[in-house]
């Protein structure tokens, strides 16, 4: 092993010999000479530093604790909150040990950083203990169009058995659809579901710090299926690391897909199902059985699937405006004028939107995906329309009347706004039945 004579190197440097000439003559690298000079400039020594921290020394261990404290400390300056620099921490530590070198401070900070790094526990899972859920998002070409696809991923920590479903969004309706497909595939309901703090499960706006308020949708799901729901701590994805790994696995498989374009979501789901089936047939990396066989051990803990199918709906509340309308999902809907300034409940399903006041339906509309529309019903604004009867035929309420209502207006009442609105006021509690009776009677008299 070649031994470097640092004293000879330093003498040559003092004489003014160039670093390259010294390196060639002493058979060392130029970097070796430059580092020696830098070392002498900083610490006064020409020899390489030995390990300056002794973990068995109580004083050095105390310095490490101090370094950990300053490493986590934030300095509040005029520009905002920031971490302390190495030089600032070195100055703080010098108050504890005046002869502390900057090199030793860097070694202390290196050790402090390693200790502050979060370490995860390896958890032991029992069969059927729980199922973990998470969303994964990826841009995929479907029908020659780049589409954002949301993967609903369910994973059992014990068996590593996974189920993945492609969804168009992360709304409650998509989760319910994925959940129903999942319990149908495993032929049972897991007793415990672990999710992150997704907005469709946890009401993050209503909940105070430390509180957990479950959304009405998940309360309905829990009551119907009987499972227990729990949440991860904020910013702690490692608590459901199994499903996080499966989300990453799904993304890698899709990025490496040889088929860049899918005809439809159905075609994409078929491809995903084939990938998942192949993965579930493989052996568990720590157990001798395949994931399919391990799932059979877990199935003994599953709850039975309810005979009555879950009917999906979401609920929220809104306040009625002074115009007896409600803004909801980018559209405007009318409600009875008597409910002005009242807070009512909105219940939406796949096809309808219902407005309820004191648990009674006051208005019903068909659900639409279009935005910026106004939906009015004649019966909700009769008092205002009677006051302004001359402008009735130019109103939104008139334009959106049903075909039967328009027939009665034009043929029975001869387009007389006052007579028609007075008639509507009398039959407003049973409008459909009375309208049909009046039209049938008019047709009979004409004959």
TrEMBL record:
SUPFAM superfamilies associated with the record: Homeodomain-like, Ribonuclease H-like
Family: Belongs to the transposase IS21/IS408/IS1162 family.
Designated name of the protein: Integrase core domain protein
Domain Integrase catalytic: 123-299
Pfam family, one: Mu-transpos_C_2
NCBIfam families: transpos_IS21
Gene Ontology biological process terms in this record: DNA integration
Superkingdom of this protein's organism: Bacteria
Example of a GO MF term: nucleic acid binding
Alphabetized InterPro entries for the sequence: Homeodomain-like_sf (IPR009057), Integrase_cat-core (IPR001584), IstA-like_C (IPR054353), RNaseH-like_sf (IPR012337), RNaseH_sf (IPR036397)
